Structures are given as structure tokens and as C-alpha cells.
Amino acid sequence: MSTIEMTAADFEKTITENEIVLVDFWASWCGPCRMFAPIFAAASDQHTDIVFAKVDTEAEQGLAAAAGITSIPTLMAFKRGALVFSQPGALPAQALDQVVTAVRELDIEKARREAKSA
């Protein structure tokens, strides 16, 4: 699956209606964003069961602000609508694969139960 462009209009629906969603917050003027883009695109081709989405922080300033984006690129991962990972900086391919593996293996229901009891 190729990456999709995400806007404020479809953000919530996308993260709640899909099992796993990885979101790359980026801008065209950002050098590290341009370096990370082909890594993110290659991962989207490799992991076709995951939604890979990109948010242009220039076009979607309100969404970027609502998501608390202070540095780009920032990668966020959602599982069943819950934010489970957020990290600024361009990741190398191996690190992105580790994030994908960790998100896949995360027992989100157990994590939610533990969060409620904490």
C-alpha cells in the first residue's frame, strides 16, 4: 500500500477505522523529512496491512498543533485508535521496522487496562 495524504478532515476516521496507522508529520522545506520520505514509502510497500499516512504540517497547521508537533519529521503510531508511539526525528529503515514490529506485537487491550488501573 502506498502512503496516503492525511488532513484534519480524515485524521480521526483514519486512525479509528484501521488496526494500525503510522503518521509522518513533515514539510517540504525540511531536509530530514525529505531523507525520511523514501524510507517511509518503502516501509508502506513492505507492510501492506498497515496504513501509512503523511501530514503536511504547512497545509495542516491546525492538525499539527492539535497533535503537539514541535519538531519535524515526527512519526506517530496508532493502534486501534490509541496513540502508542510518538518520536521526532528521521528514523533509519531498521528503526522504523522495529517500531512496526513493536506496534504489531503490542497488546493494546492489556495496555488500556493497565493505564486505567494506574
TrEMBL record:
The keyword Chloroplast does not apply. PROSITE patterns: THIOREDOXIN_1, THIOREDOXIN_2. Residues 2-105 form the Thioredoxin domain. Signal peptide: none annotated. CDD domains: TRX_family (cd02947). Coiled coil: none annotated. One of its GO terms (molecular function) is protein-disulfide reductase activity. Disulfide bonds join 30-33. One of its GO terms (cellular component) is cytosol. It comes from the Bacteria. Transmembrane segments: none annotated. Keywords: Disulfide bond, Electron transport, Redox-active center, Transport. The record marks 31-32 as: Contributes to redox potential value. The record marks 24 as: Deprotonates C-terminal active site Cys. The keyword Transport applies. InterPro entries: Thioredoxin, Thioredoxin-like_sf, Thioredoxin_CS, Thioredoxin_domain. The active site is at 30 (nucleophile), 33 (nucleophile). Belongs to the thioredoxin family. PANTHER family: GEO12009P1, THIOREDOXIN 2. This is Thioredoxin. The gene is trxA.
